[in-house]
Amino acid sequence: MSKPELTKRLMAQTLKELMMSTNLDKISVQDIVKRCGLNRKTFYYHFQDKQALICWIFDMEFSSLTDRNHDNTIIDELIQHLYANKEFYVAALTSNVQNNLREHLFKVVYNGIMSKIKTILKSNKIPPDDIKMIANYFSNAIMGSITQWVKEGMKTPPDEYITDFHPITQECLEFAIKKVLEKRGIVDDSL
User: Fold this and answer.
1) In the predicted model, what is the mean pLDDT of residues 146-156?
2) Where are the alpha helices (DSSP H) in the chain?
3) Angle at Cα 148 formed by Cα 105 and Cα 32, nearest 5°?
4) Does residue 146 carry a pLDDT above 70?
5) Tens-digit pLDDT profile for residues 81-131
6) Structure pTM?
7) Distance between CA atoms of 109 and 82, rounded to whole angstroms?
8) Are residues 47 and 53 in contact, defined by beta-carbon separation less than 8 angstroms?
9) Which of 25, 60, 85, 157 is the most buried if burial means most Cβ atoms within 10 Å?
10) Is 135 within 8 Å of 172 (Cβ atoms)?
11) How far is CA 40 from CA 9, 11, 34, 76, in A?
12) CA separation (Å) from 85 to 10, 81, 106, 164, 171?
């Protein structure tokens, strides 16, 4: 492993350790580097701010768990990953400071929804603006639901949450796509 990679991992581990005893809002970059034995310049060489570090932690952990060729399960995998790392993500997502992680997770959800839309559409074509509108709508709804679940402490285990959540999302997504197809004069009874 390269030295920059080791340095980033050290800062990530240090932030996680600090978050066990200190609210994320009260942890400064100075706290992180002091505990690591590094300087601020080193931190800012690798990350714009502590939120960028949090997003890097998510990317590092989540990308090692997911198979990007199966985007239909990416939202389920996201929920399971958040739950498996509950303490870290409750602290990160409920922080009052600028929260880039929510925007970061939105992109993951958006990509998963886009994949689902393509699967539902099969060979049907609808305008890209309609696809984006549907993807944005459902991604915002899912992120709102996930954020609320996190704020409530992730009391529902992921298997129950996904079991309740997934069919509703799938049926509503299929319905929305069917309505857009009908509006555009494309009738497909297979949906």
Assistant:
1) 91
2) 3-21, 29-36, 40-46, 50-65, 74-84, 86-93, 100-121, 128-151, 158-183
3) 55
4) yes
5) 999 999 999 999 988 776 688 889 999 999 999 989 998 988 888 889 999
6) 0.83
7) 13
8) yes
9) 85
10) no
11) 16, 11, 9, 37
12) 18, 6, 18, 21, 29
d(CA 144, CA 69): 25
List Cα–Cα distances, 37 to 1, 12, 44, 65, 180, in angstroms. 20, 13, 14, 30, 57
Residue 19's pLDDT band (cuts 50, 70, 90)? very high
Residue 118: CB atoms within 10 A of its CB come to 12
How many residues does this entry show for the chain? 191
59: tokens are 């990317």
pLDDT-derived band at 63, boundaries 50, 70, 90 = confident
The beta-carbon contacts of 94-100 under 8 Å, at least 24 apart in sequence, are 94/150, 94/151, 95/23, 95/24, 95/25, 96/25, 97/24, 97/25, 97/51, 98/49, 98/51, 99/51, 100/51, 100/52, 100/54, 100/55
Going from the C-alpha of 94 to that of each of 20, 137, 153, 168, the distances in angstroms are: 14, 22, 10, 26
CA distance 108 to 105: 5
Structure tokens at 53: 């570090």
